[in-house]
Structures are given as C-alpha cells and as structure tokens.
Amino acid sequence: MGANKLKIGEVIKIALISLVVSACSLLAYDKFFATKIVTFDLKGYIAVLRDLYLTKQIDEAELKKRIDKIEEVVAKTPKRKIIITSDVILGGDRVENLTPEFKGYPTKKAEIPEPQSK
Q1: How far is CA 22 from CA 16, 27, 31, 48, 114, in A?
Q2: How does DSSP classify residue 79?
C-alpha cells in the first residue's frame, strides 16, 4: 500500500514542472502564434507629411520616400498582425503603433511653422 503513494515532495515537483511547462506554452503562443491588433496613424502621418512639405522642410523626393514607407511598413508586418488605422481604435495607447517616426523633424502641429504667404 505504501509503494503506490506519492510523497509530498514528488507532488510538488510534478506541480512545479506542470506550471513551468504551461507558462512557457502560453508565452510561446502569445509571442509567435496569437493574432495581434496593431495601429497605424495614417491620417496623422499624411497630415505631418503635408505640413512638412508645405513648409518646405522636406522636398518632393523625401515626400515620396516617406509615402513609400507606408507600403513598406504594411508589407513587413507579419501576417498574424492585423493593421487598423488609429482613428477607429479606442484606447490606442494599449495597442502597438506601427506609425514611422519623423527623426530630425518636428511632428506636432504646434511645432511646425505655418507657411508664409508671399
């Protein structure tokens, strides 16, 4: 009768191993297989590009390059990620944002000077 009983130490070992395997499985699923929703602020990105172009902070070639960046971001996004424009997302701070940054340029409308009329 005593040979079939599990000792408390063995039960704890089995429980810990099960817990570790389950946690690793969940983390791997979340990292590599679960569908994720990500945002792209298309409206804001285009508005900033327009403002930068109109204030002559970027030229036409840079404008085209940055517009092509939109297609590049979409093409490089893994298939398990669903891209939704940020204007339809509520609580966007809880969702990954794929919108490219403007390095070296001001991005807030208040920082971009208005075009001077001639």
Answers
A1: 10, 9, 14, 46, 57
A2: T
Locate the DSSP E strands across 2-115.
36-40, 81-85, 96-97
Give dist(CA 85, CA 90) in Å, integer: 11
Q: Helices 42-54 and 60-76: crossing angle, nearest 10°? A: 170
Per-residue pLDDT of the chain (118 residues; tens, 9 = 90+): 454 677 899 999 999 999 999 999 999 999 999 999 888 888 889 999 999 999 999 999 999 999 999 999 989 999 999 998 877 777 667 778 888 887 766 555 444 444 444 4
SS3 107: coil
Q: Based on C-alpha coordinates, what's the Rg of the chain?
A: 25
CA dihedral 33, 35, 41, 46 (to 10 degrees): 70
